[in-house]
Design brief:
Blueprint (H helix, E strand, L loop, with lengths): L5 H12 L2 H17 L2 H14 L14 H8 L4 H16 L1 H13 L3 H9 L11 H6 L6 H8 L4 H5 L2 H13 L10 H4 L2 H16 L18 H12 L3 H13 L3 H8 L2 H8 L11
Helix pairs in contact: 1-5, 2-3, 2-5, 3-5, 5-6, 7-9, 14-15, 15-16, 15-17
Length: about 280
């Protein structure tokens, strides 16, 4: 995501979305916070934004289709959320050494909506890895909106989480029955430990005669060992056509010769995958 001119882009969006008085107030506060290195004014301004901007007003993004705009559109960004994240970006860019710990303290005492905003747009902050601990802690929450803020349509986990953290997020999203297609970079972050857990979980579900979310299988394609190939054979033999498609997609993406040979036994499915009539995006259609 191109962040070089991010603050200018957000400033332009806020100028066209905020009333002139609020926009002027925000910039005067920013000058005050930065010039005086004022922690107190940072905290007060961050809090007061909620009294000046309707939290339900969705940001008008206009016709632009650049990467940042598309990200804000995917997150259904509100004007209040972007005003808050703009405030943090500006102070961190002005004096990161001073404001990094101050922003961390601010988020430690944030309410649910403030933390949700921080996690959704964390990727936009300068040196976003400074707040990895906050992102990891969000994986342990029982508050669905907080977990969704870090896991859904958010590139941060794929860039900064290690395999253990990534796997915890993917599995929890599956157990919460969230839309797994909203997790970014699943193919890139697939790993052998995760595929072992997927197979174990699938066997538990099969033993209980329960269905398995088809996208749950997506990470296994690059790791089709003996155990997973038996799982794939079972999916091919299933009476559920969606499970047949899952098997075909996994085999088609695999470099394992035995997977290619297995897929060759199902030429109609193989052709549909090759022609992109079957993809992970349309597999439930």
């Amino acid at each position: 995501m191109e962040l070089t001119k991010l603050d200018q882009e957000l400033q332009s969006l806020l100028s066209s979305n905020l009333d002139p008085d609020t926009n002027s107030w925000l910039h005067s506060k920013l000058e005050q916070i930065i010039s005086a290195s004022s922690t107190k004014d940072l905290y007060m301004t961050y809090s007061l934004l909620a009294s000046k901007i309707d939290s339900n007003t969705v940001l008008n993004l206009g016709p632009d289709t650049d990467e940042v705009t598309e990200y804000l559109r995917a997150q259904n960004a509100t004007t209040l959320q972007i005003a808050r994240i703009y405030l943090l970006i500006k102070v961190l860019k002005a004096d990161g050494d001073f404001f990094v710990p101050k922003v961390a303290n601010l988020i430690q005492v944030a309410d649910t909506s403030e933390l949700e905003t921080f996690l959704k747009y964390l990727i936009l902050l300068p040196n976003a890895e400074n707040y990895k601990q906050t992102a990891v802690e969000a994986l342990r929450t029982n508050i669905a909106t907080i977990f969704e803020a870090i896991s859904m349509q958010n590139p941060y986990p794929a860039i900064y989480f290690n395999d253990q953290q990534w796997n915890q997020m993917f599995l929890k999203a599956a157990f919460m029955q969230l839309d797994l297609s909203a997790i970014l970079s699943i193919d890139e972050r697939a790993n052998k430990d995760l595929t072992r857990i997927i197979s174990d979980y699938a066997h538990e579900r099969w033993a209980a005669s329960r269905d398995i979310e088809p996208l749950f299988w997506r990470p296994v394609a690059a790791f089709l060992d003996d155990t997973l190939l038996k799982d794939i054979e079972r999916l091919f033999a299933s009476d559920n056509p969606i499970e047949n498609k899952v098997a075909a997609l996994c085999c088609y993406s695999s470099q394992e010769q035995r997977a290619k040979e297995l897929l060759a036994k199902h030429p109609e499915l193989e052709a549909q995958v090759a022609n992109k009539e079957i993809t992970w995006k349309n597999i439930k259609a």
